[in-house]
Amino acid sequence: MNDLAVETDPAELGFDPQRLRRVDERMARYVDEGLLPGWLIVVTRHGRIAHVARRGHADLEAGRPVETGTRWRIFSMTKPITSVAAMMLYEEGAFDLTDPISRWLPEFAELRVYSKGSAVRPVTVPATEAIRVWHLLTHTAGLTYGFHHAHPVDALYREAGFEWTTPPGLDLAACCAKWAELPLLFQPGAEWTYSVATDVLGRLVEVVSGQSLDAFFAERILGPLGMTSTGFHVEGDEVDQLAALYVPEPGTRRAVRNDAFGELIKHKPACLSGGAGLASTAADYHRFTQFLLRRGELDGVRLLAPRTVELMTRNHLPGDADLEDFGRPLFAEMPFDGFGFGLGFSVLRDPVKARTLSSEGEYAWGGAASTAFWVDPAEDLTVLFFTQLLPSSTHPLRQRLRQLVYQALVSEKRG
Predict the structure, then answer these.
(1) Which of these, 74, 113, 130, 325, has the minimum number of CB atoms within 10 Å of its CB?
(2) pTM of whole model > 0.90?
């Protein structure tokens, strides 16, 4: 199911074909200047593909071009899939969003919160609030990432072996036990910071369902949605379709290969990361975005009720705040102004404040290797972007792509 092709004249879907060509022309510069190895873009409206474009290489050194069937490390685009898994269990009555996670993950029962001091001598206080399921879904649990390099608690994560990867040999349960031993960045619910919360959510899915996360995904989400090329590692003949991973060269920012990190996806991981572990194809993730846009159903398969998807894609930050007001300053490609956060997605509250052409109610997320997607219910539109450059904050790809897609959308015509 890796075939992606334009299904109709883009004009029938409201796009000006000449303006649509600007997407390819402008994004091609990143490849022509050596800043990206290659990319793939898919634009869909009213359920039909309006535009598919690709440029450059999946593997520069091998001379292998980007194809529609190329496999990409999607990193944090795994998070929405894990969030869907959790909400499927929520719909079955397995838990309430306000339940403390210690009911299933007792290691999180006695938590400490950073108060002051350095990573060498941190001063902590007892948590006054339990981590609840909705805290995990909204990144308001007080957990963090070692790669932030913004706080002494981040340094404690790195010292424990958690930066871009997890310590060798530790499974998801063991990682959760380690995270529970580290102090929280803040009292649960008090702030927003991007974190391992979705990995902990994946462990909750495992304990509640009685299945490993990969088994739950395969049986309950990926199989039913026909996402047959998505998984926690790439093996066999599929390796020939795997894109190489690149990082920016210091100074020039030209894309240079990083096999030390890139090769990890070729081996079954000890830790099934619900926050960043999957590889996928454009066709597979396209099906996932269509499932979301259709409010929980695709091709007769319903995984979530429409009301559940609507709840997930509303802003859940207290007081309808945006990330700029409620979040901590972190490296990020996307702006925090005008964006809130739902249950697994960023949510656009105010396009003017965000300085974007996108629509209020857009929900989205991206991955560390500069992959991205967004769903715009107001325009019945989905957009996918795939490349493999780590980190995603290297270039303003996501905002640039929004500019280019929306300037080409000129009509409300339906096919």
Answers:
(1) 325
(2) yes
